[in-house]
Amino acid sequence: MASVSLVPFISKYNSVLNRDVTGLGKQNLFDGNSETCWNSEQGTPQHILVEFKQPVCIHSVVVQFQGGFAGKTTKLIDGNSKSEICPLYPEDNNKTQTLNLPLQEHGVERQKLKLQFVNSTDFHGRIIVYSLDFCGSVAQQPDNGPSNAGASTKDEPSVTPALTIT
Fold first, then answer.
1. Taking the model in full, what pTM does it have?
2. Do 76 and 84 contact (CB within 8 A), yes or no?
3. Contacts with 75 (C-beta within 8 Å, 6 or more apart), sequence order
4. Which of 56, 95, 128, 161 could cysteine-pair with 66, CB 3.0–4.6 Å?
5. How far apart are the first and last CA of the chain?
6. DSSP track, the chain
């Protein structure tokens, strides 16, 4: 199955600089605008929690930090079980980075993910993220039998829709 961008429909974080949720809030993580960002308050750890409309299989996290305000020690955590999926190793720069999950994690279905920044490259613990994306596929729904009666039997390409924020 082709990899697609998986945009969560709910995102939460533990802080935002000066409580400026309008200018520096979660909506800026997924808006596609390179001029907007989420900016955490100082202190560690910081985190971003995302939830998808349905289970997804993630194989990479794509993130762009502000250089000097990147996650140093970063963990990807299953939002339901609270168990660590894997450590991630972002670089301290302004480039968009693709952080790949280990191969054994690619087929694992998850609906909530927590990106935890244990510490930051900033002395005060602030994190600045310009964009965040998750690549993978929407988990396959179980086939419940003849519910597709009357549907076309032609071999049509399957399209995996991206999930949207509400």
1. 0.77
2. yes
3. 84, 85, 86, 87, 88, 115, 116, 118
4. 128
5. 26
6. ---EE---SEEEES--GGG-HHHHSGGGGSS--TT--EEPPSSS-EEEEEEEEEEEEEEEEEEEEPTTS-BSSEEEEETTT--EEEEE---SSSSEEEEEPPGGGTT-EEEEEEEEESSBSSTT---EEEEEEEEEEEPPPP--SGGGTT---S------PPP---
Enter the tokens of residue 14.
């533990």
How far apart are alpha carbons 135 and 49 in whole angstroms? 16
Residue with tokens 């990899």: 3
CB 5 within 8 A of CB 135: yes
64 and 95 Cβ atoms separated by less than 8 Å: yes
Non-local CB neighbours of 147 within 8 Å, separated by 6+ positions: none
* Span 8-58, pLDDT tens digits: 666 667 766 667 666 677 887 888 888 999 989 999 999 999 999 899 999
